[in-house]
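[job 4471] stage=fold_predict status=RUNNING
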Amino acid sequence: MTFPCDLRKIGDEVLMLDSRGNVELRGEIVGVYACHPPIYDLHPKREFSLSRRICGVPEWRLRSVCRPNSAYERR
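[job 4471] inference complete, writing structure tokens
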């Protein structure tokens, strides 16, 4: 059986939600802790400093973002 948490890996783009379900930020996964359920480290989009990295985000606060397929992008 495949869990949704198994589908997220380093480099995936996600939305982080606050406790009310509102979008807090958009970023990409830069680290995964090996526990069940997994805990993630995120790096916000358009931030160049590593000091803005968010550590210890639980899985229930993340939503996956689909990337559109470009006709000219290599597969």
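[job 4471] summary: The mean pLDDT is 85.
[job 4471] exit 0
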